Amino acid sequence: MIGFDPKDKEARHMLAEIVSWAFFPPLVATVFFIFLIFWYSNDFSQGLKWMITIAPFLIFVPLIFFTISLKLGWVSDIDLSNREERPAFLAVFIATLLIATILLYFLGAPQKLFVYAFSGLLVTVATAIVTLFWKISYHTTVTTSVVSAIAILGGLRFAWLFLLIAPVAWARVALKKHTLWQVVFGAVVAFLLTYLVFHLFGYRFLG
After folding, report:
1. Spatial separation of the C-alpha atoms in residues 97 and 25, rounded to whole Å
2. Considering only CA atoms, which of 35, 178, 190 is closest in space to residue 128?
3. In the chain, how many H helices and how many E strands?
4. Which DSSP symbol is given to 197?
5. I want to staple 183 with a disulfide (CB 3.0 to 4.6 A). Which of 66, 95, 114, 169 is the partner?
6. Has residue 23 got a pLDDT over 60?
């Protein structure tokens, strides 16, 4: 970045904000899921069918609920900075993700699409339980989950993407949104559960 001074607190804060927004969890998860839908569908029309079927549960319902919560003051900011505000939103998201996962399974979606949704469901449930007691980072959780899925499905040539977790973790700590252990724990849990689910369905890291 031209003119960036690492000793400048204001510049570091701005960079951390940019990184945080670039890896905003709902954005990262949604974009990757849309990519998977069209990548593993037989053609565009089939991909569109899956989008129409799943989008209400993965995108619209959580977005509407969050917008209402923000308007009514149930949540204080877009990051859900207060841990106590997270359970209600996570409960809604888990419910919609569960519905989406069930639909993908019973409607015969491509297995890789279903497995990713299932792994995302387990990661969300596990981290939601932890969030009842401790505010872990969903930025590192979601980034790690997506990168792990890419490396498993696409092969180890994409392993370099794991390097993206470091700046995301730095940004959240720099903004004082999380501690170092909170960002590390989010990444570790996401990797282990994502790997476990894909492994159980026969998917391994490919060379």
Report:
1. 15
2. 190
3. 9, 0
4. H
5. 169
6. yes
For range 44-71, the mean pLDDT: 87
H runs (alpha helix) in 41-110: 44-55, 61-72, 86-106
Would residue 164 count as lying in a domain? yes
Judge contact between 126 and 94, C-beta under 8 A: no
**Using one digit for the tens of pLDDT, what is the confidence trace for 168-183?**
999 999 999 999 999 9
Q: Considering the domain boundaries, does residue 94 fall inside one?
A: yes
Residue 4: inside a domain, yes or no?
A: no
Is 1 domain-assigned?
no
User: Model confidence at 7, in pLDDT bands (50, 70, 90)?
Assistant: low
Q: Are 135 and 89 in contact (CB under 8 A)?
A: no
**Residue bearing tokens 């609920």:** 65
Q: By residue range, what is the domain housing residue 41? A: 9-200
Average model confidence (pLDDT) across the chain: 89
What torsion do the CA atoms of 193, 62, 50, 100 make, to the nearest 10 degrees? 50
pTM equals 0.88
Which pLDDT band, with edges at 50, 70 and 90, does 101 fall under? Answer: very high
Structure tokens at 105: 């399974």
Residue from 60, 58, 52 nearest 29 by CA = 58
**Token reading at 120:** 């995302």
